[in-house]
Predict the structure.
Amino acid sequence: MSLISTTGKYFLLMERVFVLPDRWKMFFRQFPKELEKLGLQSLPIVAIISIFIGFIMTMQTKLNTSNPLLPVYTTGLVTRDTLLLEFSSTILCLILAGKVGSNIASEIGTMRITEQIDALEIMGVNSANYLILPKIVAFVVMMPFLVIFSMGLGLVGGYFVGILTSILTTGNYLIGIQYAFVPYYIFYSLLKSMIFAFLISSIAAYYGYYAYGGALDVGKASTNAVVNGSILILFFNILITKLMLN
Amino acid sequence: MIEVKNVDKSFDGNHVLKDVSATFETGITNMIIGQSGSGKTVLMKSIIGLHRIDHGEIKYDGRNLPDMHMSEIRILRKEVGMLFQGSALFDSLSVLENVMYPLEMFSSSTKEEMTERARFCLSHVNLEEKAFHLAPSEISGGMQKRVAIARAIALQPKYLFCDEPNSGLDPKTSLIIDRLIYEITHEFNITTIINSHDMNSVMEIGENIIFINNGQKAWQGNKNEIFHVNNQKLNDFVFASNLYKKVRESNQQS
């Protein structure tokens, strides 16, 4: 029953979010701020994680594919496909569910408990639309760029660890990351990440918007946003993969 | 004028408001008083429309709120200003931007006109110019209340609601805020409703006082009548402090 009512409340909130803004001027004032906050400010964490995952992916693949029967480009190929298919979309989004999801839930939750949302409602402003729409749109727009950035840095990280630890040659790695390349994987990954971006931002906004009580409850809303956002990402990952790759 | 007739409100079977009827006149300060948990905040939030009432009428100059469609409520709310207990200023905006916010949302004025109006409102609540570009977190509680009042009057509302306007303020600042609300109400002929349990405020600006006890209206009158009422519940509330007991005694003697 709780799941049904929560789902119902979520869709009712989304119905209020996805209407034309009262003032486009206010939307376009808020939109770049959200691009910067949710997108650009996520670049450092995306960069660090992607480089290190590139490192470890290359090292692990090399360690586990040392059979002389396997071609020399295997390490590069496995690193590339892992990054393209799963890491730079799904795993990155799981990490961003923590960073961005908690940020959105706590920001909106704090506005709720300090009556700022009530103040907007009293003024006659559609608070759901004003507060949530720019966040969802900005994060969905920024996500493909973050994914491409992550893919690039992951591959660069893999290259450097291969060269620095002398487990790979430049030639073998470059052949590997180009071998049997399927451009559709990029499309699949970008589309998937945009859906995950929508889930992360809308679920976090939902938990923040309906937060009540005090600081402790904002913390709970933030935790719920991250946990439920992550579970839905995993669930939708299976669904999208089944639909797009089978 | 706002008329409340036979209003009932329950939460999960808990009957919070019981058949409350009251009239809030225009151009005077109307106060809702009562103990914590008596239902005064629920009454105010019901009048504003933040709570949907179970039964009764809430008429804004003849327009019945429970009968209104959401679009009509949103139009009505543009005529409403509200001062929240915690000021509810937007953290991400400066003081001036907070006051300009309702103007930017709902007026078709130019940027210069909006800035001028916001500055007028801020100067009307005696806020110094140097505070205009500070964030709400950088100013004192009393100043935040003044900014909230300035924001509430920016769109020249017909109705002003103040929820515990003095909470967390020292007596001197409380008096300034009370007088400010009183002056604004009279100057702009606004229907003002103040939710308070601060007896200093009641004695200072209570022109029409509604006492709520256990979800029911237990008394209605003004600050002068309150000393001569033979209502045990009201007397227990109003004269709980020794100071007001003595004030009543001296008042009755004179």
Notes: Chain A has one domain: 2-245.
